Amino acid sequence: MNVLVINCGSSSLKFQLMDMNTETISAKGLCERIGDKGSRLVYKPVGRPGAEEVVKETPMPTHKEAVQLVLDSLTNPEYGAVKSLDEIDAVGHRVLHAAEKYVDSVVVDDDVIKAIEDCIKFGPLHNPANLTGINVCRELMPGVPQVAVFDTAFHQTMPKKAFLYGLPKKAYTEYGIRRYGFHGTSHKFISREVAKFLGRDINNLKTIVCHLGNGASICAVENGKSIDTSMGLTPLAGLVMGTRSGDIDPAIVEYYGKEEGLTVSETITALNKQSGIYGLTGGTSDFRDLEEGYMEGKQDFIDAMELFCYDVAKYIGAYTAALNGVDDIVFTAGIGEHSPFVREKVCSYLGYLGVSLDKEANENAKDNTIISTPDSKVTICVIPTNEELMIARDTKELTEGR
Ligand code: AMP
What pTM was computed for the model? Predict the structure, then answer.
């Protein structure tokens, strides 16, 4: 069974074609600068010796041209992965926001389209792009089932005490203002992978997933279900991130905006794009640069690194309380998977939990790795996230045999 996974951003489209009988990738790539000058497709055939990356610089005024180009490349006689589009059995789409409408992935129909439209107010940058991807695929691949996999769905199991904000009641009942949480596909994937990897029963497991990438969030997972997570109504909340502020005193919006002469909307943009590690260091959000600056003794870089790791450790403490204990803590995504420095610094706060880090395993972690010592009271792991595989698995489960 071949599943095409599509992830549409506002000006980009990432794709992967997966053979779900073997869970292997046949081709992947991305279209960038859609709707702009210099748009191009990068197509990578996978698993065929000698097959080289194909780069096509061609105008893509909208996502429609981008999807068409991806489909043409996948069926190209020279470097394509399938002979015809008939060999693509289903398409899985990453979608940002479904509010409270869906607790799991769903096969797309007109109701689903309407629900994604209704949630544009919560995800004004992502939901319209996600929707375009779905509509274009429906048009170009009639009859092929499309599945929507929502970033918010996994967190719909959170209890009210975890998702309500202390606002006037109508904020929630009339406007839908509540904690939704994001990175759900990653948190779901990791919570299942870690149970498998450790040989534990997922129905009797307390896991804290630290998804530390440019966007970062932490999730408390009890028996396979999200019970709390650090992002909120939008992905701006929670940990300090690459360019996002994370949690701040809400009164700062008025005060900082006034000082800088910004409107509310401009201030929120500043909190999303010019804050976090980028804002604190005065120009970088890349953790490789951050570590380098830290080692060189640059004070702003030291402050930013200390703040980030302290923040992660504080959330782990909070979620250990929420779970009433923790069996395993997992580091994943760009920073979580690749920065032994960050992992060690975070774990240095966790002695009270009986965490004992195996420094050598931490330094050498690759793929799924246990980085705590055998006598550690909590198992610490590094597990690479794979949101595309999770999307493809959900898509297969919902469409196989249709
Ligand atoms: P993601 O959003 O998951 O792609 O993660 C992006 C983040 O991972 C960026 O902040 C990168 O700097 C960080 N990252 C990637 N590789 C490394 C590495 N080798 N060491 C430290 N951070 C890394």
Answer: 0.95
